[in-house]
Amino acid sequence: MKLLALVLAAVSASAATPAFEARVRSIVDTVAHPKSLENASISTVAAKLYLHEDAAWCSSRVVELFAGPQSGDMFWMFPVTATAYLDRGQLSAEARSALRRSWKSYAPYRGDTENHFLLYYTSLYLMSQLYPDDGPETWFTGKSSKDNMEEARQWIEGWVKLTTTRGQGEYDSPHYIQEYLIPVSFLAAWAKDPAMKKRASMMLDFLIADYAPENIDGITVGAQSRVYDKQLLEKSLNLSSDFLWLWFGLGRGLTPPGNSTFYYVIASAYEPPEVLRRIATDRSTPYTHYERKRTRNRWRFWDERHGPVYKTTYVRKEYAVGSDQGGVLQPIQQHSWDVTWSVPDPRGVQNTFFTLNPHSSLRELQTYFVFTSDSGIQDVVSSKKMYDSPDKFSGGSPYEKIVQDKDALIALYNVADGARFPHINGFFSKDLAEVREDPSGWIFLRGGEALIACRPLRPYFWKPIEEGGKRLFSPYRKNGVVVQVAAVSEVGGMDAFRKAILALPLDIRLDPVPAVTFRSLRGAMIEFTYGEVPKVNGKPMDYAHWPLFGGPFLESAVDSEVLAIHHGGLRRTLDFRSLTVTDSGR
Q1: What local confidence, expressed as pLDDT, does residue 376 receive?
Q2: To 10 degrees, what angle do helices 194-211 and 177-190 make?
Q3: What is Dmax (Cα atoms) for the chain?
Q4: Of 40, 323, 385, 567, which residue is the least packed, with the fewest Cβ within 10 Å?
Q5: What does DSSP assign to residue 326?
């Protein structure tokens, strides 16, 4: 009863719903009470401090953990920061002193990515805030608390401005979602400066709004900047599924609860407003959602630091189709397009279909990393095992271009002579209910209640996938696929779908570059020639006016710093210029 009362009290300030409170309770309880306290992590200490439980054990464990030299980076910094803020007089003087000394004796690595910097500067900001009068001799940076806070403040505010004007660089990652939500949650809970606190609380809405329209039953869909190989295929394993369960009760929940969402809930424990819940859960009407993001920092070969990323995601209750425009927009882990279909229970299921050119090159790595030698590929492969494999399923390619209109998509490939992997791979899941190769050249698939038609432009053959399913392998440099998806409820069964697809006008040309003209099931005439701006119904795609967010639920113009969130009669407007939130409707 004590644990329940304390957890409920901790989240009651935000008027959380009972269901959300129960999810928070399960997460904290799991981390606070492992099967054994032997070798317990700093996370267990933080959880017990959050619950005001076992203060003596927490103190002795902190002393033990900080007795020797520290190791780590920004991922060391944020758990220690949370522990310091959850102390609230519970730790012994010895434990508190050991924790404080570590910020002088150990110099954590700042990292080299957007999420690394946000975690680093948030932790430095909050720890310096906790000891506001300490001098430079007490910090690993060699700067005073005041100077640490100012450096961190400038970076954090700059990141918020860049994100709300040009989008995230590590955009829509179903794995790195936690690396953004954790620091923003920390600032919303613990920053003393009213402007910083308000900015962080608004960014929670902004980040959650970014994920809410692009999910089906708690499974994140659409093009993504960074996703790991296993989670790319089995989407329910992504950490974004944990947050969508926590926020909205979507999906099957965490087993065990905790881990990715833990540091978020022990700080702000923020439950999103009703308007975001409706956006995340309402799939009664199909819709197209648009986003503009930016590339990761480009250090070589480009005049502009960040390039634009144009995203399109079509969502309905049975499936989603999502894409970017193609090209190398992020190194190593980019995922450019796919079809994802809904299943009753996604655990253990590979409910996705896509193709790609498995590009690998030193130039790609030198664009986005600051390698000092030509060993870049070997350095990357040491941690990202599949990057240099011709069989990989993740990664962007400079030879891939994509256009999408609703649930019709065309991907064209024009692989350069001499490229290391001049072929395309297609992922055909073990969990497809049906795969039919038609004499017309179309391949007809069924996943759940989604019917998928795929037309490779060139001949192909099949290769088995060790974990199940099969790989479409097409060894031609000039290549592509045409994809059209529909719901069983719209067209009937597979035979009716096949008949409808074969009746659609389709013109394919391969020389001098791949080109396709295709009329979709929705009646759109799509004209796409590799290297040219695609046209839909005779009009070129208007990339110059692509919104930061656009569609039925989110509206934001590039450079506006204003995001309008709406569903039905509910509306919430975030204005980052004035740091104001305006709500209306019911």
Answers
A1: 59
A2: 150
A3: 78
A4: 385
A5: B
